[in-house]
Batch of 2 targets.
Target 1
Amino acid sequence: MRRLRNSYWPLDLFAPMLSSPVSRPFTARNFMAKIIAMTNQKGGVGKTTSAVNLGASFAAMKRRILLVDLDPQGNATMGCGVDKRGVSHSAYDLLMNEAKLDEVVIHVEHSHFDLVPSNADLTGAEVALLDELGRELRLKNALDPVRDNYDYIIIDCPPALSMLTVNALTAADSVLIPMQCEYYALEGLSALLETVDKIRKILNPKLEVEGLLRTMFDARNNLSNQVSQQLTRHFGAKVYSTVVPRNVRLAEAPSHGLPALLYDKNSSGALAYLALAGEVLRRDRARPEILQ
Ligand code: ATP
Ligand code: MG
C-alpha cells in the first residue's frame, strides 16, 4: 500500500464538532464492510462530492473507509489530492485482474481513508470486459477479500448505467442516490430504480436502496421545495432528513485536493456531510443485520 504524503490532520481539534450523538454501533472487527454505491446516471448531481465528503466524515468518526473511484473522470481521485495521471495502478487494473487491491490502494493521510484511484484508463475497461465471462463480478471479486479491513466501502459511480455501474451495483450492499430537487430529477430516478431492481433479480439479491440524498438544495427555490415534498411522499423514510445545501465551499474544496471538512470545517457543506454520516450510522445501528 502506498501512502500519500500530506499535512497531518490534527483530529483532536475537531473533536467537539465530531463528537456525534452516535456511539460506535458495532465492534468493527466483528463485521464486514458495508459497500455503498453512490449512484445516479444523471450527471453533476453531487455523487463525487457526496462520496468524498461522506467518506471523510465517516473517517473523522473513526470508521475505516475505502473510497473506490469507479469513474474514468477521476474526480474523486483528484478531489482527494491525488494526481490521477501519476498513479501507477488504478481501478482499471482491479477490473482487469491485473493487480490486487493492496497494490492499487493509496492511503490518503489527510483524510484518514484509503482510495482506489481512477483515470481515463478505466474507459478501456468497458470495452475490454465486453467479451469476458463474469464481467459484472470483477469489482465484487476484488473487494470481497478486503471487506474485513473496512467499516464502509464507498463506490463513486460514473454518470451512466454502464458496465462500470453494473459492477458497482453487483458489489454493493446498497445504493445511495444523490439528487438535485429539480424538474427532471424524478424521471431519471425511475430508470435508476428499475436498474437496481434488475440487478437485484439477476446478480445481487441483497441490493437495497440505502437512501435518497437531496443535494445542492436551495430552500428559497419553490421548485426545490415542491420536488423535495414529492420525494418524501413517494419514498418516505428512504429520503435522508439531512439535506445538503448549495455551498460554495463544497465546490471549492476539490481544487485544493481536500474534502470540505479539511478545507472549511465550519462550512454548511462540511456540517451537512457530518450530519449525513451520523444519520447513516444511526440507521445501520437500528438494522445491524444488514452489515453481516
Ligand atoms: P458526474 O456525474 O460528472 O460524476 P457528480 O454527480 O459526481 O458529477 P459532483 O462532481 O459531485 O457531481 O458535483 C457537480 C458540481 O457541483 C461540482 O463542480 C461540485 O463541486 C459542485 N457541487 C456538488 N455539490 C455541491 C453543493 N452542495 N453546493 C455547491 N456545489 C456543489
Ligand atoms: Mg462524479
Target 2
Amino acid sequence: MKHLLDVDELSWAETERILGRAAIQRRTLAAAPAGQPAEPVAVGPATAWAAAAMAPLAGRRVGLLFAEPSTRTRLSFEIAARQLGAETFVIDPGHSSLVKGETLADTVRTLAALGLHALVMRHHRAGAPWVAARYFNGAVVNAGDGWHAHPTQALLDLFTLRRALAARDGLADGTADGSGRLAGRKVAIVGDLLHSRVARSNAWTLVADGAELRVCGPRPWLRGWDELAAELAVKLPSGRLIVTDDLSAAIGGADAVMALRVQKERMRGGLSLAEYVARYQVTDERLSAARPGCLFMHPGPVNEGIEVTHALAVGPRSLVLEQVASGVPVRMAVLEALLGGDEPTGRSIGTERAAEGLAPASAPVVDQSTRDLSSVSR
Ligand code: NCD
C-alpha cells in the first residue's frame, strides 16, 4: 500500500488488516492514561524496544494540507500521527505558495524535497490527491476530495458500525474476529447524496462487506447513483445497492441509518428546506419502521433540526461521537500501513485507473493546467 486515495483501491485483505489494527489501537488508546502513550517502565535495551513499539513512526514527518474546512478529520489525523510518534506539519494553503500561482504538482514536490514522508490532503477539486500522488514520492492520504471520495471516513464508519452492531446483538467484537461482517444487515444513507464524498466511499465498503445498502434523498440528489449501483452490481455481485426517493422504503427494517449534511444553499431548484425536513428528516418516530435497536450515524458536521432531530442526534441510538472517536485508531492504522514499512510499495491497478481519469461520472475532474488551485471552486 503506497497511498490511500479511495477505498476501492484497497484489497479486501488490506481493508480488514486496517480494521483489525484499528481495533488493537483503540484498546491501546483506551488503556493509556488521558489519551497519552504509556511511559516505558523497563530500563536498558527493553526501554528502547518499548519506546520503538510505542512510537513506531518516530522520525516520520506527516504534512496536513487542508484546502477546505475540517475539524474532526484534520485533528484526528494529527492526533493519530502524533500518537504513533510522527511529527506533524500543518500546511495552510491560504498562506502557501499555492496562492502565488504555484501548481499543486510543484507544491507537493516541494513538500517531498523538504522531507515529508506522508501528505494528508483535503481538496475541493475531485481528483486532486491523485495528482498529488504522481508528484509526491511519499504516501498521499485522501482526506476528502470534492464530491468524490473520503476513504478514511468510510473505514471509520465501517469500523464503528461493525462494533456497534456486534455490541447491540451480543456478538464478539466484530472487527477483531470478522464476526461483525455486514452480511444480512440493512443500512440506509439519507440526504444530499449528490454532493457527498462520504456516501460514495461508504457505498463501496458497506456493499463490499455484505450490507444491503439503501441510498435515499430527493430525486435530483440521486443523480448518478443508478449508474453507481449498476457498476457495483458488476464489481461486487454479492452486494446490493438500492436507490430510492422514498424514505419509508429506505428505513424499513434497517439496522442503521446514516444521515448526510444538507446545505441550505444547495436547495435551489428542487425541494425547499421545509419540504426536505417534512419528507426526509430522520427522526425517532420514523425509525420505528426500522429494526428495533436501529442505530443512527452521521459523519458530521450535523445540522440538527434539518437532516436529523436534535433528540436523535444526541440520543442513545446515536453513534455520532463514536464515529468521531473511531477516527483516531482507524487513521493510526492507515498511517501505520503506509509508513510502517512492512509492506511492498507500488501503485495498485485502481490508482492507475483513477489517474487515467476514471473517477465516478458525477465527480468533477481536476484540470491539471489550473495554476492556482486554491482559488478555484467546484
Ligand atoms: C464530511 C466531509 O467533509 O466530507 N465530514 C467529515 O469529514 N467528517 C461531511 C460533510 O462535510 O458534510
